[in-house]
Sequence to fold (444 residues):
Amino acid sequence: MKKIVSLLMLFTIVTTGYAQKYGNTPKDSVDCIMNNSLYQEFYNQKNYKDAYEPWKHAVAACPKNHVNLYIRGAVILKNLFVQAKTVQEQDKYLDELMALYDKRTEAFGQEANNIARKAKDISDLRPNEKERAYNFYKEAAEKSGVNGIDLDDQYKPLYLKACFDYLHSIKANEEQMTPLFDAYDFAADALDASLKQAKESQDEKAEAKIKEYIAATEQIIEPFASCDKIVSIYQPKYDKESSNIDLLRKITTNLERKGCTKSDLFFKATESLHKLEPNSRSAFMMGQMLAVKGENRAAANYFKESLDKAEDNDSKAKACYFWAQTLMASDQYAAARSAFYQVSNYDKSKEGECLYFVASMYLSSAAACATHEGKIRGAAWAAYDKAARAKALDPSIADKCDALMRSAVGQWPTTDNAFFYEITNGQSYTVGCWIGETTTVRLR
Fold:
């Protein structure tokens, strides 16, 4: 009691200039300071019933005083909702909670997150109101900016889950499942963007958390992610709107994510998209499509186009890697080697794997590039060198590097051959043919 009286005496002598920090008028400031102190006392004791009234007065007096007014206010209202004895009481507190998030947006911004908070609270407090929760999440996603940048990552899989729950509640058929894939597109793309940002900033904790959200997202969509189901959902839409760029993006993205690149729909949608909107991604998908058909030379051209049009290192690394693979598959070894070397300019972590493929091409060329009636296969020495370097750079591929190195040793000349052709162990040797690389003589 003495504390309250002292506070009241203090508030009566608050100057106008000082008071303006807490409200629009000196009276607001007095009300703000007093009610903040009162509600926090009760709040810290988890006496939410008695905290309620002074908290409401504090929000009214100084809505921009501190974000804790809204964080703690949500806790108060949710606890009062749970303690309510009638549906009418629950409705009262729930309506106040929804309005509180609007006030928080007015005071501190973050509209998308506050709408998502509404959605989560509806899901928790009124689990039967699935459509309402889904609509809030959908609105939050729509207001979240490019790649969902303004929405906390935790809400992205929850949006997909809410959509799934809503569609399940209305017993949606396959023709009604498009919203589920719209929610999946948003969540997957937004989380991919967040993961990329976390990697660039080297925030390992954030990266691990985002990967958990990605795993949750994939788990939710998994029952609907078979190629047959995705095709059955999108084929009729493609037949009606084959020039709809947004639809084509969704079709190709979902089919690519789920490994459905052999489907006719993927081929058709990819071709349509690349004609209407040729860019790095559409060129990459054209390359994928042709590679699946075994048309590697044509695929290589599209992967090169994708590389040339890519704007970020991740996309460049991916396009360059596939470009190198298709050049190798079409026996364009020299060009493939150059492409494999280029990959590490965009993603250093792939250098070891790319060197392994260079070693494979060297070994494949050992017979064709051999000298002295095929006895001196210098390419096998060069292949061994590359594989050893690849293993040192990337221990995860050690087994296949070891296997290649054993194969290379099997093609080294014997001591008898070396004597006959005047080469000695440890001697420098330049491999001719397309390889053109200097290595060291080693004998069996």
Residues 278-346 form one domain.
